[in-house]
Hints:
heterodimer, A: mainly alpha, B: three-stranded antiparallel sheet
Amino acid sequence: MVGKHLAKVSGAVASALLFLGVWTLFAMLFNSFIFPSPLEVAKTLTELFATGEIFPHIFATLNRAIIGFFLGLAVGSTFGYLTGMSRIFSLIVKPILELLRPIPPIAWIPLAILWFGIGDASAFFMIFIASFFPVYTSVYFGVTSLPVVLERVAKNYSLTVVQKFIHIIFPFSLPYLIAGSKTAIGIAWMCVIVAEIIASSQGLGYFIEVSRFSLEPTRVISAMLIIGVIGLVLHNLIELVEKKATSWRSVVYGE
Amino acid sequence: MGNDLCLELKNVSYEYSSLENGSKKRQRVLNNVSLKLNKGEIISICGTNGSGKSTLLNIVAGFLYPQSGEVIRVMVENEIFAVFVFQDLGLLEWKNSHDNVALGLLVRKISDEDKEKIIDKQLSLLGVKSFANKIPKELSGGQKQRVAIARALAANPKVLLLDEPFSALDWRVRETLVADLRKVLKNAGISAIFVTHNPDDAITFSDKVLVLKNKIIKELTVSKLDYKSRKPLDKNFSRTKNALINAIV
């Protein structure tokens, strides 16, 4: 166990050193204005946190991403369960959703600006769209993957639709719901940045755009690093929920 | 005897249809099958693979509907008539043994206190009370079978339907489980239909063995065989087993 932990930490340290080494090499090859070194970026990052300048942007982005994600999660899972459990609902709704699903969330930006203007509402809408489809698809797939034997168990014990949902369908589909959420949070996090670059006046995306205009690549890279770290933390948080909530599964989790 | 009847199948026929080269192909697996099951009676249905044993059980459970014939279930309203113990058990992997058994009680309109008593009783009867808090992945094959049977019995069915539930177990576990289950069923007066292709299990477990062959059913009575002498080394047991094998093949 200790050996495994040590290997994991050593791997992470080696990976970080490799990343910083390659970055430094590129910074030496190019003009530092185009490609700032890790040291310069670290200095800017320290300043951003020390002055507190970055915090309103981080909170604005997180706020949009989390609210939009939970909206997408709630509506996406509801549609997933309804289409998976009701043939009539599926016949009516699924063709429309299948038509809309391949449209990249970013393609909705012009319409979002037209409908909601520049600001929070557009960003929420974008993140909602980005989260909705991965969650909807995963939940639908989970519900329709229910083994025949479990369908028969519900019939065997004369369970009502609600009892069947609570005791069988929801727990069975939970791993699918969480897998969909993991994909959704990743896409939502990407979309919130894009939405902020195009249609916002606060947030990490907006910060990147403003820094680009003022020709400050160290600030651009600093914001990018913050985005990467928060994205990783969000992903790991969902993985933690997954491990706790689906510990009954006989699977080996990837390290 | 008539008052004791709990299930009757009259001239039941069933055929599966499939598409082959664009045309619908029908395959008959049961042809005018009739059988009677009395209260507390245990019958086994034997036959080769594809002989229609599981189809027959699915018809009794109400999962399949026969194209012709009649299925008479003698029951009162709001009663669970038959409960199936599936070959792959169908235990809910996310629930512990206690909660899996509780699933069998969801539909019963009894107090929570009574439900707890029933769960406790069934887990004890099947010898898995000490595993009440374990989830299926923490149980052995035999323990899982016992939990699945406890769940089925908790629903208080008139008939227990068993589709080769012991097939994955080694002979020692199987022998104990078959004996324990027979005792539990006889004490509770629950009827059972047991589908198997293991002649030893069929003879040990049941009062009557039915053989499904060429889409029809033949009866082989084993109830005359003293239960205590139902041991593989017993002469009468061997004779009955040979007769059964001859009937199957």
